[in-house]
Amino acid sequence: MIVTVRLFGPLAEQAGKPRLEVSVTEATVGAVLAAVAVAAPALRLDRSVRAAVNTDYAGAEAPLREGDIVSLIPPVGGG
């Protein structure tokens, strides 16, 4: 399955683009994270980066369906 991954903030800067497409054989967020780490090794994907499927936050075990979009969201600071 081909999954579109949207990158925000410093993640988009690190990758040099705001969007990636990765191929996964297992349809989970965790598989997408592993594929992104291979496709864009410059990304710093630590525990503070949150994933969302379409519009809902999701954990690594969350299943994906064809057409889902995974967003990777870095921590946001401010006040």
What is the name of the CATH superfamily?
Answer: Beta-grasp domain
Spans of at least 5 consecutive residues with low confidence: none
In CATH's first tier, which class applies? Alpha Beta
The span between the termini is 40 Å
In the CATH hierarchy, the architecture is Roll
The geometry reads as: globular
The H/E string reads: EHEHEEE
Mean pLDDT: 94
Biggest sheet layout? 5 strands, mixed
Strand content: 25-35%
Biggest sheet: strands side by side, in what order?
Answer: 2-1-5-3-4
Instruction: Return the structural class.
Output: alpha+beta
Polypeptide structure, described:
With 79 residues, the protein is of the alpha+beta class. The chain has a single domain, classed as Ubiquitin-like (UB roll). 22% of the residues lie in helices and 29% in strands. It has two helices and five strands. A hairpin with a 2-residue loop joins strand 3 and strand 4 (56-58).
Please outline what is shown here.
With 79 residues, this protein is α+β, with helices and mostly antiparallel strands. The chain has helices spanning 10-15, 29-39, and strands at residues 2-7, 19-23, 50-53, 56-58, 69-73.
